[in-house]
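Work Package 3 (structural annotation) set out to generate three-dimensional models for the target panel prioritized at the project kickoff. During this period the team completed the workflow that converts sequence records into C-alpha cells, so that structures can be stored uniformly alongside our sequence database. As a representative example, we reproduce one entry of 234 residues exactly as it appears in the project archive.
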Amino acid sequence: MPAQCKIIALVFFVLAVVAVPRGEYWAYGVDALALAVALAWSRVPPPYIAKRMVVELPFVVFALLLPFIAVGERTEVLGLSVSQSGLAAGLSLLAKATLGVVAGLLLAATTEPRDIIAGLEGKLPGQIVSIMAMMVRYLDVTSDQLRRMRIARESRGFIARDPRHWPVLAHSAGALFVRSYERGERVHLAMLSRGYDGALPGLGGTQTRRRDWSVALSLPAVAAVVACSAWVLR
C-alpha cells in the first residue's frame, strides 16, 4: 500500500482515538480490536511491536502518577487512596497512548523510511521534507561515527560504570556534534556544486488507487464510528 495512504490513515485513526470521551473504556476495546485485526493482516510479529513499546514509557509514568496527584473525590484501589477523576484520566491517557503508539509502530514496521518521506512530499513544506530525507540518509553515517568513537574509548581501557565517567561521555557527544556539523557543511557544499536547488530528486511517491484509500481508511472509519457512538451513548 502506498505510504501516503497509511500516513493519512494513521493521523485520522489517532484523532478518532483521542476524540473518545474519558471513561468510555468499551470504545478503547473496540479500537484495540480493530487495530489487532490490522496487525494480524500486516503479519508483523507481535514481539516486534512489544519490544518497541518502550517508547511509551513516559506516558505510562505520567498515567500512573495522575491518580495520586489529581484533586477531587477519593476512592480506594488496592488499599491506596486515589483521585477518581485522576484515575479515569490516567486510564484514558494510557489507553489512547497505547493505541497511538501501536498504530505508529505498525506504520514503521510496514513502510521503509524513504517511502514515508516520499509519502509526505507535497503534504509538508518542502524544506521539512528535505531535512527529513537528509536525516534518514546520513543517520547511518553518524551512527557509524559514534560506534568508532566508542571502540576508540574502549581500546584505551575506558568503560563507563558510574557518574564519574559522565564528563568523558559529554565530551564525546560534543565531538560527535562538531564532526557531524562539519560533515554536513561539506556535504551541502558538494550538493550545491552538483546543482542542488533545495529539493532532493527521486522522492516521487507511489501512485495511489481508489482501492488503496478504501482499505487504508477502513481502520480510521471504524475508530470514528466508535468515537461518535461513545459521545451519543455517554
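The mean pLDDT is 86.
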